[in-house]
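Troubleshooting log. The previous run stalled partway through. Resubmitting the same two chains, unchanged.
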Amino acid sequence: MITAPMLEIAVLVLGMVILMVEAFATKIDKRILAFAAIAGLAVVLLGTFFVAPSPSPDQATGFWSFYTADRLSIFFKQFALLTTIFVLIMMTDYAPVVRSSFSAATAQAGLGEFFALPIFTCVGLMYLVSAIDFVFIFVSLELVTISFYVLVSFTRRNPITLEAGMKYLVLSALSTAFLVYGIAWIFGVTGQTNLHRIAEVLTNPATDRGAALLGMALVLVALGFKIAAVPFQIWVPDVYQGAPTPVTAYLSVGSKAAGFVVLLRVLLPFRTLPQTQRLIVLIALLTLIYGNLAALPQTNLKRLLAYSSIAHAGYLLIGVVCFDVRAVTFYLVAYLLMTLLSFAVLVIVAQQTGDEISDFDGLAKRSPFLAFAMLIGMVSLAGVPFTAGFLGKFYIFYAAVLQRQITLVVVGVITVGCGFYYYLKVVRAMYWQSTEKTDKIPINGLSRFAISALIISTIWLGIYPQPILDALKR
Amino acid sequence: MVLFIIFCPIVAAILIMVGTPARKTALAASVLTFASALFLLATFGYDGHDFQHVTSFTISPEWRLSFTTGIDGLSLIMVLLAAIVTLAAVWFAGTIERYENTFYACLLFISGGAIGAFASIDLFFFYAFHELALIPTFLLIGIWGTGNRVAAAWKITIYLAIGSFILLLGLILLYQSVPAPLRSFDIRALTVAASLGQIAADAQHHIYLLLLLGFGILVSLFPFHTWAPEAYASAPAPAAMLHAGVLKKFGLYGLLRLAIPLLPEGARHWTTLLVVLLLGNIIYVGLVTIAQKRLDWMLGYSSVMHMGYILLGIASAGILGVTGAAVLMFAHGISIALLFALAGELRQRTGTLAFDELGGLARVMPFAGLAFGIGVFAAIGLPGFANFAGEIMIFFGAFKNGWTMDGFHIFQITTVLALWGVVISTVYMLRAYRKAFMGTISDQWKHLVDLRPTLRVPVTLLVGALLCYGFFPQSLVRIVTPGFGSYLSANRTDLINTQSCSHGAVSPCLKEQHCQSASTQRGGYNIQQIAWR
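Second attempt completed without errors. Output:
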């Protein structure tokens, strides 16, 4: 048995080692670093299944009052590791683009950092899902965000990427300011930063609820930025479109999932206040409507996926409103699979043609495997049964119907209809449209394996969701 | 066996996508499906009203969700319909120029999805299997469609997607309406809970409305019918055959399977609404059908219109009307598939389906003319075809419903109006037949050749099924009635009759008599006298 914090330390050491090797071994093919990182993360992923239980958070002292290793956090540590592994696989496919954006004498300049940075982000995500103290939440959130600052603007010769990096930096810094301000209010009212102690203090009628709510609302702004909820979503389309595609995938899966875990943990003490739920219902409605409607006219696939990421934040927020942790978790897993699947295909196809939807014309003829993978990704995102995406929506709607959130359910169903339109636009391009290009799109063995694994698990979880639900129950 | 019949088309579709020869695999799979459907028919046990050949795999014990399949009388005839139409559609498809593999895979996915939905006892898979057909339909219309295919494909996909999500809400609500310890996705368990009165009347009203809306969109209930004619007009013929013939019956099947046994109170509450809407189907859509100037659009609208009769049978909620609805579902599926197949063949030969340009084709294509004529007469509901048996049972059953000596009940008015639908359908069907196949033939069609002998096989299969069940409708009635008998009597307040009817040990003959005597007030009728002719 190993204790939970060792996982993060192991990943941290892995990141350091890879940075060192990249600095001192200049002769090697830098892709070896990526493979080493994937292997190392896979070992840690294996280790997560043998973690000793942590003390109960109620009586925890010292380190354990910052850090918890409950089922939820272990599950999301696995989630973060898995995401990072898939992102690294995408990055190896993306390496030629990174290389071409550096004009340095050595063709491999910068590649090493490109592979090392996601590992540090992963550490941040792993800490974040374990954090039960505002101070710790803040620190790990910054670790995630700062590594993303670099990653988003990594191919800095491209002006669009630079713009994306700039926008992300400024708006992210702003949201951090909101977070700190909110924490300050909550600390001022309750005198605590630990979430469990805050919950205890809030039950005391002498506490100033109004000021606590203000603090919570400010924290919500910062988290809304992370999970891309309306009205804090303005950065999403530009940053998603401009960032290197694997980084976009990482942002939309890793960052969002961690954001939702933190949201669930932070809202727990404030759940008893009726205003909290009303506020989140409002945000969820706005997010659903904006995300889905704005996605309708998009012609660029990366941008489309950006708006779809907003839309999915809306569905996830329905789950948050109902406070159904399992529904939210299952949705996030489904979202991980289908989003990574779509991005994995996008990375490969976009290098040959481009990332407009029209660049996918006739893909079914050129490369049936990639087209089928994209079809499964899109169909799952839209929510067709026998895919994980449908079951995710099913659990979310189930929770909402059970709690009689009629408005959310009605808006949810209508926006699902919108979703069918814009996701099937991609399917239409791949299957209906014809193209003059007939050359096959090359795909290496590792990516083929990763994409196949994603397809199979998307369908498998759509039929047999029990493993995920069991993993959370124990 | 039931598992085999569900997964035979699906596995074949996956094999085709992997790269086996498309047409051969598809034909082999559909022949196998057809053969196993016949086997199921032959080994069907008539004396029980329970599900047979039940197999179950637990998915989630906590939610009582399991992949359970099995057939009772109603599912059996729907599976049989699906198998017949699949075989005919695959046979008719012929060689496809673009993406042949995808075409056949899509067809088989639709077929497998429909069969899976009909043979699922579990609510979740019942829903999910139907959705399996959604994307294949989108691709079939989008890639191989004609005319305004883009708009048609979007319309059908989005309409059906929203419809099925509304349906999903209804099903979730249905699942949640049962007290927690009894909650289950198993339709049998839900039926038991419903017969114990566990579903509150108030909840039934909401659930029934959602189900009616969801299933109604899938069945093209007026005013949610606009997706259907356009989609069928632009779909390639095999897709239209499968969708109009089989898949659309899913909504009706769902109403028969869920709404009537589980939500009798909801059904009673919304009867007037359903009756008004189905009159919209019969009268309004019927008149619109007369105005059509193209054969494919006319067939599309006529398939919408005929849904009205079946819905009338379902609305009457008496054993005679419901049995008629089941028979007509089967008959309509076969006849509309036949008509779409021949229309598709015509379109391939002439390149047009506008009435003004066709005419006299029976001279050069006598076999096609004869087959089309049979399809037309069947669709009108002439005696000797299965459609007639279904329609007459529906009309009798509906008229009997709520009958009092001293005045007209809404069902009598509806039935009288619906009878005019027969006149309307006679007008448009005969007109279509005259304009396409009779009259003077224009010079440009003189070189046309009749159907190849290989294509006559599926046509004969469909015509044979129509005639066979037209002359012996009792063989269908015998299959479906026991199941309905137990549902309809289980909902009655009269406990003594309930027990004697649903008791499995009573012989079928005796049981039927019991049910009939028990359900005279609700529109029960001596089926054997009416249907046997």
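Takeaways: The radius of gyration of chain A is 21 Å. Chain A is about 75% helix and 0% strand.
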